[in-house]
Amino acid sequence: MLVNRESLDLAFKGFKTVYSDACLAAPSHFDKIAMTVPSSSRDETYGWLGHPRPDRQPDL
Predict the structure, then answer these.
(1) Is residue 38 part of a domain?
(2) Which parts of the chain have pLDDT scores under 70?
(3) Distances 5 to 1, 12, 16 between C-alpha atoms, Å
(4) Does residue 56 fall inside a structural domain?
């Protein structure tokens, strides 16, 4: 096999497809270990999670 940009792009495309398919097919267990908490505001602050870092705030 000739290793060049085209063959590497095809290989990574195949890897991404296999990975994506496996993630979509994997069972989800979040509902057994977590719960959904409704919110009435855009942002929530939970002291027990620590303080948010200004350099890691999303740009909205």
Answers:
(1) no
(2) 1, 51-54, 56-60
(3) 12, 11, 16
(4) no
